Amino acid sequence: STAAAAGSSGGTSAKTITLGFSQVGSESGWRAANTQSIKDSATAAAITLKFSDAEQKQENQIQAIRDYISQKVDVISFSPVVTTGWDTVLKEAKAAKIPVVLTDRSVDSDPSLFVTLVGSDFEAEGERAAHLLEKVLALPGAPKTVNIAVLEGTTGSAPAIDRAKGFKKIADASHPEWKIVASQTGDFTRDGGKQVMAAFLTAHPEINVLFAHNDDMGLGAITSIEAAGKKPGTDILIVSIDGTHDGFVAMTQGKINAIAECNPLLGPQLMDTIKTVLGGGSVPAWIKTKEGDFMAADAAAALPNRKY
Ligand code: AHR
């Protein structure tokens, strides 16, 4: 990082902040919007950003964080691909006195090893998806026997673990009639959703509901549902999470029935948090994102105002 000249007259000294950021990958539309938000807001905040894409591999993230430590950046931020296995590298950052601000996803480490998390409540998203499914199943013509397929996110990732937990909580508490007949990871990608859904449809022709942990897997699944001669949104009801542009378009076409929003535009809050932390201020342990719920009937009106 560079120190701006303070001037001989004793004027204020402005130090440019250097942020080392390790992104999970580029697996989804959500992630593309998140990356853009981080890059744009770093520029707007005059923060120097060192950015690397880990291609959904933990070892790449650990390597990137070690590189940032040796480059002596002012602050490190990352969205951890999985929840476990971070203690060693987080201790290295702490020993180097470089604060770590998590964003999007959390870790299962001792909370003293990072400053805060700027991101969503994934368990609440899973619960919200279940409540959206209740609404979809209350619409005319909805089936009474509910055979659910689940496309899970990346195995071991916070959103996959917590969305499954939140959904199950509501299902167990109130819906003995909901049967999860198939559940497997599609790694948060469109291709993963497509391939896993194709296999599900062959093995379980009784599936009439899909809960996809993100829009991209839902969109991939739509391709396979149509290829199998079924109508997405009618023969197989679909609820997903994110609220990307393509997810909204699928809702306007009646192919996705409802979406629980997960907001990827975390950059501005992340940059504000970093400035507060480096300025010696205190921040809450978790800075939560505000999100909405959308039924297909709301999609056309909402689409022009969507920002990602
Ligand atoms: O961690 C957030 C999740 O990661 C998003 O819901 C998904 O689309 C992304 O890949």
Automatic annotation (TrEMBL):
Subcellular location(s) per record: Cell envelope
Entry-linked InterPro entries: Peripla_BP_I, SBP_2_dom, TAT_signal
SUPFAM superfamilies: Periplasmic binding protein-like I
Record has Hydrolase as a keyword: no
Periplasmic binding protein domain boundaries: 21-280
Keywords: Signal
Domain of life, per lineage: Bacteria
Major place of residence: other
UniProt key word Signal: yes
Family membership: Belongs to the bacterial solute-binding protein 2 family.
Name the record gives this protein: ABC transporter substrate-binding protein
Species assigned in the record: Catenulispora subtropica
